[in-house]
Amino acid sequence: MLTQDLYAVYTRHRLICTDTRKVSPGCLFFALKGERYNGNEFVKQALQAGAAFAVTDSEHNREIPGCIMVPDALQALQNLARYHREQLRIPVIGITGTNGKTTTKELVNSVLSQRYKTHATQGNLNNHIGVPLTLLAIGSDIEIAVIEMGANHVGEIEHLCSIAQPTHGIITNIGKAHLEGFGGVEGVKKAKGELYSFLKTSGGISFVPADCEVLSGMALHYGLKDCVYYGSTPASFAGIRIIENNPFLGIEWTHLNQKHRVNMQLTGTYNRDNILAAVAFGLFFNLSADEINTGLSTYVPGNNRSQVMKTERNIVIGDYYNANPSSMMVALENLEALSAGKKAVILGDMFELGQEAEAEHSKVVQKAMELHAHRCIFIGAAFFAMKTGGAEFYATVDLAIEGLKAKPLAGATVLIKGSRGMKLEELIAFL
């Protein structure tokens, strides 16, 4: 089936589903394949659950009523999303970077939604499947879309840009993450720079943190002309100063020599540029200072990112959705800057670091120990291999739980951070 013909079906069945457990009556089901699943095996189940049609690339399903045959279901989904994007006449903001993508996306969306009808990436749907799903959820009433784009290999951002076709874009930062897939930091720069390359070619507008030498240098390298620089330099569109971090942030941002103060429900000095990016987008799209401040002050972080939780015994800074060497260091620096009297650190292994894993975990241990926290707890095989005095090392989360049961932690401000696969959220009940 041609993309245009599939689009005609989509216009009658706008709800897209790729998981039979989430099938809704009248939806359009795409039978995608992965390492551990094959959606083609669940086509009958999806149709029986109420899907209007099932898009499949398996010949075994050809005779099943309600099936739409395509050469490749994933490519059909991506082509459909690209075609839908081409029908839209709205600003599309593309966001990528090593750290802060999701927080920046949420902040930008919170600010812009004060004036516009916006649609933003839900959760972490930022890959070759998530971006198409996000685009296909954009209705005719949407005025601005905010699309998060992630990658762990060179070429992925370029591909996602070809689908989302952003008119505006931002790289939040360049850091050490997915080094195994990128082949080092230079690979990260090349991969994230694919957004700059797309915006240069398409005539889009890039938002660049002026205080970041790496990204400012990349902007020059790619020959970007349409740029909005934000930061502390005199030529910046907007600036920011953190005036409180205890543990929530109080900030003062400036534009045209006017200062505006706002208290946030977000912690972490490392979120400085993420907040300022949202301010810059708000100003660019003509929001008032009051609208921008409302968007900032009402944003409550979720999904275990920079979340502050007050338990019966401790104040927990939960930042364990994901972790890499760069985000680990800034999280530890933020804890160090807090005025809390009693601090504790619980860190889990960082994944996908390849040959750099041992060296990077060692640096994190050293930095954490320099804080002289009340307790330093390291969890996971990589950290456990570096077991040394003055700290607690556990090979698994279960063993760490036993350690917390035997020696409860109370009255502390606790930073919990690690890669998603460590499942550090299981510790919360014991804090």
Properties at a glance:
alpha/beta; 6-stranded mixed sheet; globular; 431 residues; 6-stranded parallel sheet
Polypeptide structure, described:
This protein is of the alpha/beta class and 431 residues long. It is built from 15 helices and 19 strands. α1 crosses α3, α4 crosses α11 and α12 runs parallel beside α13. The longest helix has 18 residues.
Summary of the model, kept short:
The protein has 431 residues and is an alpha/beta fold. The protein has 15 helices and 19 strands. The protein is globular and about 65 Å long.
Layout of helices and strands:
Elements: H1 3-12, E1 16-17, E2 28-30, H2 43-48, E3 53-56, E4 67-69, H3 73-87, E5 92-96, H4 101-112, E6 118-120, H5 130-136, E7 144-148, H6 156-164, E8 168-171, H7 179-182, H8 185-202, E9 205-209, H9 213-221, E10 227-230, E11 239-245, E12 248-255, E13 258-267, H10 272-284, H11 289-297, E14 307-310, E15 315-318, H12 325-337, E16 343-348, H13 357-370, E17 375-379, H14 381-384, E18 392-394, H15 397-406, E19 413-417
Parallel strand pairs: 1-2, 2-3, 3-4, 5-7, 5-8, 6-7, 8-9, 9-10, 15-19, 16-17, 16-19, 17-18
Antiparallel strand pairs: 11-12, 12-13, 14-15
Helix pairs in contact: 1-3, 3-5, 4-10, 4-11, 6-8, 10-11, 12-13
Give the strand order, joined by hyphens, for the main sheet. Answer: 6-7-5-8-9-10
| Apparent shape | globular
Structural class: alpha/beta
| Strand content bin | 15-25%
Rounded mean pLDDT score: 94
Report the C-alpha radius of gyration, rounded.
Answer: 23 Å
Fraction of residues in helix: 25-40%
What's the β-strand tally?
19
How far apart the termini lie comes to 55 Å
Largest sheet: 6 strands, parallel
Task: Indicate the low-confidence ranges by residue numbers.
Answer: none
